[in-house]
């Protein structure tokens, strides 16, 4: 049925809407056609098509490396990226745990490979990137620097060994892996790095001064790489979670009093789920986010912006 356009034009035309449906993502493509009426002197044709943009929301054909992909947030990231079509390579220190995950992912139809690696070890890091290069023919679209650890102690009790462990695992490893992966990311002509930071890189947390310092360093590295490697079409972003339900925090949150403190300063009043972090990581890797770089985004239920806003539930 024609829709009169006399209010928009002096030409006595009608607008015919013919919706079609894409076969790939069920998104409607509308064809708008202005046709001649009995009173028009000329034919007029105007068409506007919303092209199928499903590739903006897909990782089909892309390759990814996710460090520490067998547990918690890393595990969720592997499944998120693989579910969007990426071929994923991951690593872990525990071989039995890694093999179990690889079998499970294969059963689910995910394209995931992996090898044993301790990212705090320089030799292991070089071997890892060599394996990734071989697996993906010298090209890599996505690098997720996910591995991290924590040693909860007051500053006065931190030993030199504690300090070295935190710096090597949390910061030196991601710096070096990024260096090693740079030629692969550049070769892809569309690279994306995502770091797993923490809210401890923004605010003070109990007994987490050194861990927070490593995350603050990651935040600054994120910004520097975004500028330095932009010429190579490599984007760099970070996600900064608050308490997420993973095995790493289970023991700490078994303390009911501490758990209440955590929830009291979290506006949403709950812990996060690993998939609530992995979804953001995936978005930052998608073509749809191609103009986003140098950003550190908190996934924290509002914790870092709550200020003095006590919950009175």
In brief:
The chain has 313 residues and is an alpha/beta fold. Helices cover 37% and strands 19% of the residues.
Number of helices: 8
Note the gap between the termini. Answer: 56 Å
| Radius of gyration, taken over Cα atoms and rounded to an integer in Å | 25 Å
N-to-C SSE string, H for helix and E for strand: EEEEHEHEHEHEHEHHHE
Instruction: Tell me the overall shape.
Output: globular
CATH architecture of the domain at 63-245 and 273-302: 3-Layer(aba) Sandwich
The top-level CATH class of the domain at 63-245 and 273-302 is: Alpha Beta
Helix content: 25-40%
**In this structure, how is the largest beta sheet organized?**
7 strands, parallel
Q: What share of residues are in beta strands?
A: 15-25%
Pfam family, one: adh_short_C2
Keywords: NADP, Oxidoreductase
GO molecular function: oxidoreductase activity, acting on the CH-OH group of donors, NAD or NADP as acceptor
InterPro entries: NAD(P)-bd_dom_sf (IPR036291), SDR_fam (IPR002347), TR (IPR045000)
Features:
19% strand; single chain; Rossmann fold; 313 residues; 8 helices; three-stranded antiparallel β-sheet; alpha/beta; seven-stranded parallel β-sheet; disordered N terminus; 37% helix; 10 strands
Structural account:
- The protein is of the alpha/beta class and 313 residues long.
- It has a domain at 63-245 and 273-302: Rossmann fold (3-Layer(aba) Sandwich), CATH 3.40.50.
- Helices cover 37% and strands 19% of the residues.
- The strands form two sheets. It has a seven-stranded parallel beta sheet, with helices on both faces. The chain has a three-stranded antiparallel beta sheet with strand order 1-2-3, with no helix packed on it.
- Helix 4 links the parallel strand 7 and strand 8.
């Amino acid at each position: 049925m024609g829709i009169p356009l006399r209010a928009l034009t002096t030409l006595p035309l009608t607008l015919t809407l013919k919706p079609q449906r894409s076969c790939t993502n069920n998104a409607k493509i509308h064809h708008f056609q202005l046709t001649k009426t009995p009173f028009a002197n000329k034919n007029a044709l105007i068409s506007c098509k919303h092209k199928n943009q499903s590739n903006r929301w897909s990782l089909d054909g892309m390759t990814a490396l996710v460090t520490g992909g067998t547990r918690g947030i890393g595990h969720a990231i592997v499944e998120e990226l693989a579910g969007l079509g990426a071929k994923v390579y991951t690593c872990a220190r525990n071989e039995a745990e890694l093999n179990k995950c690889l079998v499970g992912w294969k059963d689910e139809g995910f394209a995931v490979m992996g090898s044993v690696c301790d990212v705090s070890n320089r030799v292991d890091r070089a071997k890892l990137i060599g394996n990734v290069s071989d697996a993906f023919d010298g090209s890599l679209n996505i690098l997720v620097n996910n591995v991290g650890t924590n040693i909860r102690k007051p500053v006065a009790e931190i030993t030199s060994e504690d300090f070295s462990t935190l710096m090597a695992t949390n910061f030196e490893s991601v710096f070096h892996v990024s260096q090693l992966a740079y030629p692969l990311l550049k070769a892809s002509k569309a690279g994306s790095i995502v770091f797993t930071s923490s809210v401890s890189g923004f605010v003070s947390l109990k007994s987490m001064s050194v861990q927070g310092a490593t995350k603050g360093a990651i935040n600054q590295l994120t910004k520097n790489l975004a500028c330095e490697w932009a010429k190579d079409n490599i984007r760099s972003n970070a996600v900064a979670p608050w308490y997420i339900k993973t095995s790493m925090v289970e023991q700490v949150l078994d303390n009911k009093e501490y758990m209440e403190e955590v929830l009291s300063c979290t506006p949403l009043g709950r812990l996060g789920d690993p998939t609530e972090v992995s979804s953001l990581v995936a978005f930052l890797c998608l073509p749809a986010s191609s103009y986003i770089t140098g950003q550190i985004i908190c996934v924290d239920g509002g914790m870092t912006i709550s200020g003095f806003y006590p919950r009175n539930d």
